[in-house]
Design a protein that fits this description.
With 531 residues, this protein is an alpha+beta fold. 34% of the residues lie in helices and 30% in strands. The chain has three domains: 162 residues, Beta-Lactamase (2-Layer Sandwich), CATH 3.30.450.20; 139 residues, PAS domain (Beta-Lactamase); 89 residues, 2-Layer Sandwich (Beta-Lactamase), CATH 3.30.450. The N terminus is likely disordered.
């Protein structure tokens, strides 16, 4: 039996490789092929020819090739599992003899190969006996009632990955004695198919199951989501069309874009593969007001920063290029503090980084302390120019930024600096309140390096977006962060899971930039574009 399995895997492996080569060899990658598809402008109108949708690839060929490729991989899996399930060692539950065949299967399709016992305990190729149990899975009862499983969506317990399970029962004397399964890793499976299809960057493909759940998608956060629930009426209609017809075309608006797609049924398990050219950016009903809110918030933040900057500049001028005596400094500090409600404290710092004076009186205990280890001190020493610092943890324990001016004489000699300490979270929350009260809009502010200056929707203030463990699984949020970091303004969609919830929602974000002394803050308004 082992030799038979080896020969089968050797043959099917070559066949799959040949099939993939034939697919790749076809001119479907958008270079040297100008195909045109006609499709209905109205959702679900498969035969409507009223509008021409032009593609620079042969879209129908790609859809057919993708459907065939996915089905052939799944058929390869089910055939392999049937051979393994039929072996005497599998029917008798002898794990050491079951394992080699399952291991060979994982070499051709990425996934976790399992042998499942009648009580739900199971072995995996990588871990042996896992000590875990699958008897509470929805597919377990049908599987042990002699039904094959052709695609159950799961979070793999042995790997923690999003997977689709294909399984076959092992039957001895008309009784199910166990089952073999492959939990196919969807991210790896999607990447494998995408590499073979080799689509231009302005195209996307994805797969929905019979219930309209996303099985495969180039943006992994969308996997296991129900687009009909996350989109507007056009998306609901489109999903209904896709899941009830064998093939055709449809259109929908989703995540700020209007998109036309082709789709085709995959007979093996009634999934649908969908191909579309990414549509033009389109404003949803909430976007105009989102931009108005963004502009108001950005302008008000900018106004307050400029007022603090002007107050500090005027104060420095009163020192006439000299390190001020105590009474002059304290009187000036108190005036600036009273004039600017978002200034937390004001400090006079000498050339060695020691805080010589601080106001108001609550901050007198900081006098004599050193800030030599702060990044802003090094920048001031180097450039001797006004600066708005990056966010940091203040001595008092809160997230802060500081606005600093050097004290220099007419010859440019550096005599120290004055620093305004600001809590941006307090400032932004109060500034934003009038603009977002009783609206769906959520403000947040982030520095280009990913440090979140202000956020309340996911309690991110002070966190590093690109480094914090809480965000590492939010792939599209990290993609959004990259866009925000690299572009001073823009709009994009992302997927977000609220704290303490497994429910995901598609959100839109629009952003712009506030600048001061070469420092930039990205001001963002996010919202859910559909009720």
């Amino acid at each position: 039996m082992k030799n038979l399995l080896h020969d089968y895997f050797l043959f099917t492996g070559k066949a799959m490789a040949l099939f993939s080569f034939l697919i790749i060899a076809q001119p479907i990658n958008g270079y040297g092929f100008n195909g045109h598809e006609r499709g209905g402008a109205n959702v679900g109108s498969e035969n409507d020819k009223t509008e021409i949708y032009s593609y620079d690839i042969d879209a129908r060929t790609v859809v057919g090739a993708g459907a065939t490729m996915i089905e052939n991989h799944l058929k390869h899996v089910i055939t392999s599992l049937r051979l393994i399930a039929a072996a005497p060692s599998t029917r008798s539950g002898i794990w050491p003899e079951i394992r080699p065949g399952l291991q060979m299967l994982t070499e051709s399709v990425p996934g976790a190969a399992l042998y499942i016992e009648p009580d739900g305990g199971y072995y995996s190729v990588d871990r042996g006996y896992t000590g875990l149990n699958l008897s509470d899975r929805d597919y377990f009862e049908p599987l042990f009632n002699k039904q094959e499983i052709h695609g159950a969506l799961i979070y793999s317990r042995s790997t923690g990955k999003k997977s689709v399970l294909v399984a076959v029962p092992a039957i001895e004397n008309d009784e199910v004695t166990g089952a073999v399964a492959l939990s196919i890793f969807l991210d790896d499976f999607q990447e494998m198919i995408s590499e073979s299809l080799n689509l231009p960057p302005d195209y996307l493909w994805y797969v929905l199951d019979e219930q309209g759940s996303t099985v495969l998608h180039p943006r992994s956060d969308f996997v296991f989501m129900y687009p009909a629930e996350e989109g507007g009426p056009s998306m609901l209609q489109a999903v209904q069309t896709i899941t009830t017809k064998n093939e055709g075309n449809t259109s929908y608006d989703f995540a700020g874009r209007s998109t036309h797609v082709l789709f085709k049924k995959i007979p093996f398990n009634n999934w649908r593969i969908i191909l579309g050219k990414i549509g033009e950016q389109k404003a949803d009903e909430y976007m105009p007001a989102a931009y108005e809110t963004l502009d108001n918030l950005k302008s008000t933040v900018n106004l307050h920063l400029k007022e603090m900057d002007k107050s500090l500049d005027n104060l420095i001028k009163t020192f006439n290029g000299r390190f001020p005596p105590e009474h002059v400094a304290r009187n000036g500090f108190r005036n600036v503090y009273q004039q600017n409600k978002y200034v937390v404290s004001i400090s006079l710092i000498d050339t060695e980084g020691k805080i010589v004076l601080a106001e108001p009186s609550d901050f007198h205990p900081t006098q004599g302390m050193s800030i030599r280890d702060q990044e802003s001190f090094f920048i001031m020493q180097k450039n001797k120019a006004p600066l708005l610092s990056s966010s940091f943890i203040a001595m008092e324990g809160f997230d802060a930024v500081c606005l600093k001016y050097p004290i220099t004489d007419e010859k440019g000699n550096f005599h120290g600096s004055v620093s305004l300490l600001i809590r941006p979270d307090v400032m932004i929350e109060e500034i934003a309140a009038p603009y977002i009260a009783e609206t769906i809009y959520e403000p947040w502010i982030i520095e280009p390096d990913g440090r979140i200056i202000f956020d309340k929707s996911f309690d991110g203030t002070g966190k590093m977006l690109f480094l914090d463990y809480r965000f590492e699984e939010m792939k599209t949020l990290l993609e959004l962060g990259e866009k925000i970091s690299n572009n001073v303004s823009g709009q994009s969609d992302y997927v977000y899971a609220p704290p303490g919830s497994d429910e995901k929602e598609v959100k839109m974000a629009v952003w712009d930039t506030v600048r001061m002394h070469k420092t930039e803050w990205r001001v963002i308004i996010s919202y859910k574009p559909y009720d």
